[in-house]
What we know:
This protein is of the alpha/beta class. It has helices at residues 17-21, 44-49, 64-82, 98-103, 114-117, 125-137, 146-155, 180-191, 211-222, 239-246, 263-269, 284-291, 323-331, 345-360, and strands at residues 5-10, 30-35, 54-56, 86-90, 108-111, 140-143, 163-165, 197-201, 228-233, 253-256, 272-275, 295-299, 314-317.
Amino acid sequence: MARESILILADLTSPLMKSRIKMLENLPYKKYILHNANNQPLSPQILESYANFIILEHPKINSTTIRYLYSFFYTFYLLFTLNPKLIVVHWASRLYQNIPLSLWGKRVIVHTMGGDIDLKQDYWGKKKFFVDRLLGAARVISVKSAFMQEMLQSHNNALKDKIVILSWGVEERFYQHITRADKQSLQYKLFGRNFDFLFFSIRALKPFYRQKEIIESFVKYFGKKLNMGLLLPNFGKDSEYFKAISSLFTPNIFIHNIPHNQMHNYLFAVDCVISYSKSDGISQSLMEAVCAKRWVIANKLPNHSRLLKHKENAYLLEDITELPEAFEDIQRSILKPYYDKSLDSKVQKRLYLSVLKGYFNVT
């Protein structure tokens, strides 16, 4: 069979996938997407959003081991029968599936995230073995920042010639011009009231993101000030951790289910985004906050330095105990918006397509 197809492997329930996959929409090939073997069915809305792609799904299998073995053989079958010209792998943490993918490595571009390669997260043991196998065989590996490039090269310097930096950029809806009146209108719509200042601790409710310390600090200084507010997202939460921290909540702390297609409205409704991660690549949520012209409070990590400028568009913490000082400083400071080409999705799309043309003759 002539190699006239593209095979994409991705978790289509991830809010990040749609804009990234659709960068390939106009390429003149049959485009197949194999949804991850995670037992998460795809809604009609998700299926409709990929109208120009052929969606393939795994059956629901409760046993994790059997599900992964099925995925291994199904992936092998697809690679053999489709014989794709290009194989696009979104995220390298795929365990057994990486074995057949590595056999077709010369046609593979792997898009990595921090959790794939960060020792401070779970890049060790069985996961490390399978990730390393795929990265070693792939023709191209993309990372979101120079920091992640250095991290990956520190694990295996032999990969350096196949790494490209591709940040993906931010969707245009995050670039809207929002007036104070617009912000107040959004606050009333989303919360039923207005605030003098509204913080948004934007990361998942897990110990890794120090949400307990953020909440404790907010409650200590603003818990009785109902004109101040703290928003928390209800996604990716650790149930036991959430049970422990929910007892700290005061009436001016709000937890909302925030679908990513509404994230821009929430960012425009708040004044400041908080993110304190033990380690990070470059978070999409921080990129979006910068584009939305919102203050950011974050810990001082090397990878943040490109987008976050201390006391210009961010307050960078040496330690989480500095949160109260950051709370006060940004309320009396004037934001200086920042632009970088890594935030521009159109620039990033051109870069992506040029990589595919140069390495795979896909055009």
